[in-house]
Write a structure and sequence with these properties.
The protein is mostly helical. Helices cover 77% and strands 0% of the residues. Helix 2 packs antiparallel against helix 3. This is DUF420 domain-containing protein.
Length: 180
């Protein structure tokens, strides 16, 4: 691929940085809205969809790692773009759920309570952090900067995998307390 001009690189970096801040801030603001929108009871199923999306994303991430280790770049690219697409769908679904439904409180007691909150907090914090790394990794791959892509992925992959897996674990831990 052709080398990017410095001005193009600056624009891409600026966009990645803006999105990496804007996405978590927008999600936080949307989650803070107390007045819920009524779009019907179908939105109560979005938590289940999100768990499926996170599960498939984790599998795709592992497949992407497998394919690149097998030097199957085409399969790697396809699985990683599918994981990125699912991540985008997850974000929309997550926001839509929280715009339309009250948050669910965790009702577990004893040792499981601090475990749940540790997983939840680490999941949330790392889901904010991973946006920047994933956007960079995707940008570097699509722009043919594979050395930089590999460096970004060293951070993006384990964080993204952790966020995907803990999203499913947290879902199963809180699932008994959903009111729908």
């Amino acid at each position: 691929m052709e080398t990017l001009q410095p001005i193009q690189e600056q624009k891409a970096n600026r966009l990645i940085n803006v999105l990496s801040i804007a996405i978590p801030v927008a999600v936080a603001i949307l989650l803070g809205i107390r007045q819920k929108v009524d779009l019907g009871s179908w939105t109560t199923y979005l938590t289940h969809l999100n768990a499926v999306i996170n599960s498939i994303t984790a599998i795709l991430l592992l497949l992407g790692l497998y394919f690149i280790r097998q030097n199957n770049v085409v399969a790697h690219r396809r699985t990683m773009l599918a994981a990125f697409t699912l991540g985008s769908i997850f974000l929309v679904s997550y926001v839509l759920y929280h715009l339309t439904n009250e948050s669910t409180s965790f009702g577990g007691q004893g040792w499981v309570r601090p475990v749940y909150y540790f997983l939840l907090v680490s999941h949330i914090v790392l889901s904010v952090v991973v946006v920047w790394f994933v956007l960079r990794a995707v940008y570097y791959a699509l722009s043919g900067q594979f050395g930089r892509h590999v460096k970004a992925v060293k951070w993006a992959f384990p964080i993204w995998l952790y966020v995907s897996i803990t999203g499913v674990v947290v879902y199963f831990m809180i699932k008994p307390y959903y009111i729908h």
